[in-house]
Design brief:
8 helices, alpha+beta, about 20% helix, Nucleoside Triphosphate Pyrophosphohydrolase, NUDIX_hydrolase_CS, globular, hydrolase, RNA NAD-cap (NMN-forming) hydrolase activity, metal ion binding, about 325 residues, NudC-like_C, 7-stranded mixed beta sheet, 18 strands, single chain
Length: about 325
Amino acid sequence: MTGFALHTPPLLSRAAALRDEPLRTDAARQLAGWPTARLVVVDDKGRTPVSWDSAPEAAFREGDAAAWDAASGSGVRLRTRPTTGDAPPPGAVLLGEAEGVAYWAVRGMPDLVAGDDPAEWADLRAVGAELDALGAGLMTTAVASLNWHETARFCSRDGSPTHAHNGGWVRRCEANDHEEYPRTDPAVICLVHDGADKVLLARQPVWPPGRYSVLAGFVEAGESLEACVAREIGEEVGVEVTDIGYLGSQAWPFPRSLMVGFQAVADPAQPLFPADGEIEDAVWITREELRAGLARGDWAGDPTAVSGSKVVLLPGRVSIARSMLESWAALD
């Protein structure tokens, strides 16, 4: 066996809102839809209010402009605000439309006067895997787009201030009308296996004890994705790989990455040379050992040795790394 496929899509790759470019350039449509639009409010730590019940609390079902309600789904649900005023405020980003409702992202904080509970605000790492497709797509896009706006306030070509246009999906500078678009930094993430029943995991020194995952790194200028896979794995653990193949991708807006998933094959007989200061340890484990680690939960569980003296805790379901590992572990 030299290849496999993801058996489920990465959870932050899900989306249910229409986000076509014509929506962003149609100012009349945006104004017409503003009174019934909903706001995804994100604070400066990337958190937004969510509801963990199967139905909205009575206090959120109806109310004035300060009230919250459930945007969609069951289980964990994204809570959105109704709009105020006649038009989107400066800095608002059009996330898309779903079932005739437009969704916009804005920066904001918990509204204590309206009864908002700051403890109910959560970030993508905490709830991204629990939201439905609409909620996950809206929150991921909101976090990514707002992060970009905060770092693109001045033109990269002439230094003049920039201002948002096209529903928040382009910024134009004052001096020369230069256009800038949301930045995404591509990174590869690769599950390296031996073509049989062993997978290569590694840990960073800043991670809690026992935390291991697959290898990843940022794509450099002038580099293909496949070349980045080979380079990063060689740099991080000193291993040569073959049979590089694409698996899937998902946004990872921390602050603006796109994780592009790959698999590759390597010989476990090759010595491992963890990169000093970047990789604290690397280890080959069997499929059965991986299954035992997955059973412990998301970045947590009882730190029990599963590979000799190694303690292996695995990434949470919100990450593409978890989708890759689960798919490989499911092979017979």
